[in-house]
Amino acid sequence: MKFSHSLLVLAMSAAVALPAAAQEAPSPLSFNVGAVSEYRYRGISQTRLKPALQGGIDYADASGFYIGTWASTIKWIKDGGGDSDAEIDVYGGYKTEVAPGLTMDVGLLQYYYPSHKLGVSPNTLEVYGALSFGPVTAKYSHSTSNLFGFADSKGSGYLDVTASFDLGDGLMLSPHVGHQKVRRNSAFSYTDYSLTLSKDFSGLVASAAIIGTDADGYVGPNGKDLGKARLVVGLKKTF
In the predicted model, what is the mean pLDDT of residues 100-125? Predict the structure, then answer.
């Protein structure tokens, strides 16, 4: 934890020193750990509709630059014949206000699946840009590599719009809609949507979300539709 201290000294004829007034400044470093009833990414279950453990570390500098890493347990690599049970994300970027109330966020995000052993690497690099105004954020992510193991899919894109409405008393309501275009694999392109209600209990956030897609081609080894609308609940602690 990083602290800043101020010391006020009033010089009078007897040179009396007053006690120091220490004030804690926000730390640029934060951590989060959590669990979800299933890990959904862009509407598709990454865990065969099963629970996942997750966690991350973020560093946000006062200048607007930030870096971070995040990880989750997964099942889809092994379901596809590979040998990885984890997703590790590493990202960095720059966020700043470009006009009153308008915030820009640009960066790079690397998805890494250690020891995946798949024929086409699922490791994916995306460049992204986002604009936020009030409660609404519009974001576009563009893959500079193949996308999550799809052959010849470099240049795929994901466009989404998300809003966050503060309902008071720690409650947030977040509607979302997005569209994933898988280049040269159009049968796997789809639209996803979600509506999330969360409650912050002094840093412990509980959430419940309805998440679904119109995807047809994402089916698990058990024959279950991985993009079908379902209720996903989670707990996350940030510190």
Answer: 97
